[in-house]
Amino acid sequence: MLETRNLDKSFGAVHVTRNVSLKLERGERRIILGPNGAGKTTLFNQLVGELTPDSGSVHLAGEDVTALPVAKRARRGLSRSYQKNTLFDGLTVEENLGLATAVHTGNATQLWSDSLAKPEVREIVNEVAEQVNLMPYIHAKVSEISYGVRRQLEVGVALATRPLVLLMDEPTSGVGPEMSKGFHDLLNNLPRDLTMLIIEHDMDLAFDVADTITVLNYGEVVFDGLPEAARGSKLLKDIYLGNWEDA
Amino acid sequence: MFRHNTLRYAVLVLLASAALFQAFTAEYFGLEILTEILILAMLVLALDIVAGFGGMVSLCHGALMGVGAYAYALLSTTAGIAPPVAMVGAVALTGAIAWAIGAICSRSHGIYFIMATLAFGQMAYSYVFEAPIFGGDDGLGGIARLDLSFVGIDLNDSRSFALFCLVVLGAIYGVSVLILRSGLGRSLTGVMHNEQRMRALGLTVWRVKADVFGLSGMIAGLAGVLAAQHIMYISPGLLSWTVSGEALVVVILGGLGTLVGPLVGAAAFVVLKHELSAVTTYWHLVVGVILIAVVMSRANGIFGWIEARWGDRIERRLSDTTRKPEAKEVLGDA
């Protein structure tokens, strides 16, 4: 469903993505682990088109999308959530989800009708609000909801485009342990045919949700395999404890 | 997303009543001032749509108004086309030019967007000033008003023309609300809040900006057509960047991104201009001081200040009788 071939990116002398090749099957849930500065978010930015790789290619559902701009990739089914909330703060939860849904359903540029009043938009908005447990907050403004709920909305907005592949950059970033547990259920309850690539530091969540795990270090894939194999991996422990040089 | 509230409705009713009162009771000079306010109000509504709801601060809306005025003048006088057709043609042409400007400038932001629109405006000004077909510095005269004699209305009468402009302004306001509440308007709001996210959701951002800029240009063009019919003469000064600057001052003075505020601003600006210019030739200084005071007070213009002070209070008082639980109550300690 999503594939990268030899993706490479440098900022000056800093090599942030080194020859990264990944292949995600339809419905696969892959977690990307790696310490800060490993190049995880930079990889995401290249996948969605916010950064252009120096070399290599990105393929979505068999199509080479490397040359496509962000919006076209999104319309082909690639959606992402961000590490820092990038919501529409002055609007309600419903309106946030509605904006994303309107783009997906082709109502975002209609001139004489309110996109949020369209039955097909409302249906998806309600469906996504249920999926990410936002129904109690549906009419609340973003400024009125807690940080944790905003993280749910961040994922909800990405989901509302009904993507083929959902990229989530640290969905539990900054939330407490209780809320983090809620995210386990939230992610596990998403449709099984949705392909997910998730950057996450929360190991519990990673091992609970992942079908496969990829570990990045200094922009390079150093582990690619099943969670069971990753769990006892000395390499992984060394990377997170900062002993990579000795690993 | 644009929403009406009780205060906005109340101010709209107040403004419409005052305009109607003035239209039916004023003498010639008062009617001229009223018409000036109404035409300026159309221009600032056009500007508020792009600047207040799309973050596109334009310094070419004066030029767009001028394009509408000149297009109407040329079509109706030189080309001899019937005024109603000339009006439609002028508005459509201005919309097309505005769309192209919006499409090109949509790639820039902030000060660069302002400078790009200023450049387009000055290009139009210079071209109109130099090209013989536009009459150069002398401008064009003999511009006819719309003929509505078939329904018994003589628009050559100042009172009828003022009322006609009021009806057109009402229609423009209604259309502006419809635009802002449409899918396009919601997307525009999304782009202003977070352009990067809208793009990541799959929206072709430049197209949304260009479409709204084109629609706004059509409104500015219509204001230009009516300005040309009002004075029955036009000169290149109409396209000058100072007209755009003045419109921006009015929008900020009234309340950016409120639609109602710019109407208040237009009325306040024209009345102030006429009252102060009767006393001193330095009336711009007084307007400047007022503008600085409004900006420094960090209120969103005159109407924004009123809305911040009383808007919520009025809504709360009204909702006390038919009260629904507020978001904070539903959310608890979230």
Automatic annotation (TrEMBL), chain A:
Superkingdom as given in the UniProt entry: Bacteria
InterPro entries: AAA+_ATPase (IPR003593), ABC_AA/LPS_Transport (IPR051120), ABC_transporter-like_ATP-bd (IPR003439), P-loop_NTPase (IPR027417)
Gene Ontology CC entries for this record: plasma membrane
Domain ABC transporter as annotated: residue spans: 2-243
Keyword terms: ATP-binding, Nucleotide-binding, Transport
GO molecular function ontology, one term from the record: ATP binding
Residue ranges of coiled coil: none
The protein, known as: ABC transporter ATP-binding protein
Organism whose genome encodes this protein: Marivita geojedonensis
Automatic annotation (TrEMBL), chain B:
Major subcellular location class: membrane
This protein's record includes keyword Transmembrane helix: yes
UniProt KW Transmembrane helix keyword: yes
Keywords on record: Cell membrane, Membrane, Transmembrane, Transmembrane helix
MF terms (GO), sorted A to Z: branched-chain amino acid transmembrane transporter activity
Pfam families for the chain: BPD_transp_2 (PF02653)
One cellular component (GO) term of this entry: plasma membrane
UniProt-annotated location(s): Cell membrane
Bilayer topology annotation: Multi-pass membrane protein
Transmembrane segments: 49-73, 85-104, 110-128, 161-180, 212-235, 247-270, 282-306
PANTHER family xref list: ABC TRANSPORTER ATP-BINDING PROTEIN (PTHR30482:SF17), HIGH-AFFINITY BRANCHED-CHAIN AMINO ACID TRANSPORT SYSTEM PERMEASE (PTHR30482)
Protein name: Branched-chain amino acid ABC transporter permease
Source organism: Marivita geojedonensis
